[in-house]
Amino acid sequence: MAVTGAVLVLYLVAHVVGNLKIFYGAEAFNDYAHWLRHVGEPAVPARTVLTLVEVVLAVSVILHMWSAVTLTRRASKARPVKYAARRKTQASGYAVHTMRYGGVVILLFIIWHLLDLTFATVNPAGPAGLPYDRLVQGFAPERWPVTLFYVVALVMLGLHLRHGVWSAFQTLGLANGRSYRPLKIVAVGLSLVLVLGFLSVPVAIAIGVIK
Ligand code: HEM
Asked: Where in the sequence is the domain holding 156, given as residue range(s)?
């Protein structure tokens, strides 16, 4: 879980940095989207690096979900009888809801997101539209339900990341003794920066800052 989660977090950091290029204008953003498809040329054919990234991402998402299911099964096998007096720990209640159901919302979000901004089949600009136009038309004020879905999914992503990053620190044995509190702050800080960075784009378009 921790390794695939770390790969996905690295992708999110790169993705949010790329998205923020939209604040530099249409040309900068479209150039960046063009660069993504041509990075590595002429040493390797167009889309080689992007395809590699896509394969690593797809494998990471599948393994991440597979680990979640396997670990849950293993945990319930190890303790088939429920505790008589169940103590609410990090591994139950709130965390289970944000991780399990939040994970499902994030998965549904990724499917919609690919149809919207990668394949553009559900985007008003359509598959022939430029990346900048897809974003501006996709988050136009009248498409507020789509923007609202993004906001809900990104908040879920933030909660998922906060718990996930913290759990990864524990898995790696870093979260003990005096290092406990700073690592909690890192988990919350990283999640907040990512979510606010991602949110800034649809919100800026919806309120007309980016046209
Ligand atoms: C408001 C937030 C977001 C915006 C504005 C946004 C924007 C975009 C755009 C414009 C593309 C198409 C890039 C291109 O083909 O040129 C894209 C692709 C993608 N995004 Fe996002 N994104 C957001 C959040 C997310 C989040 C939170 C995730 C993951 C949880 C995500 C995962 C992906 C994936 C997997 C792709 C496909 C990458 C590929 O084609 O190789 N995005 N995004």
From this structure: 2-80+88-206
Task: Give residues (CB < 6 A) around ligand 1.
Answer: 15, 19, 33, 36, 50, 53-54, 57, 106, 110, 113-114, 117-118, 131, 135, 150, 157, 198, 201-202
The sign one gets for the Cα dihedral 117, 121, 125, 130 is: positive
User: pLDDT tens for residues 151-177?
Assistant: 999 999 999 999 999 888 888 888 766
Q: How far is the CA of 80 from the centre of ligand 1 (A)?
A: 40
Could you tell me if residue 158 is inside a domain?
Answer: yes
Instruction: Return the closest-CA partner of residue 146 out of 100, 196, 205, 101.
Output: 205
Kindly report the number of other CB atoms within 10 A of residue 41's CB atom.
13
211 domain residue, yes or no: no
68-97 confidence digits (pLDDT tens): 999 888 987 887 676 666 555 555 567 778
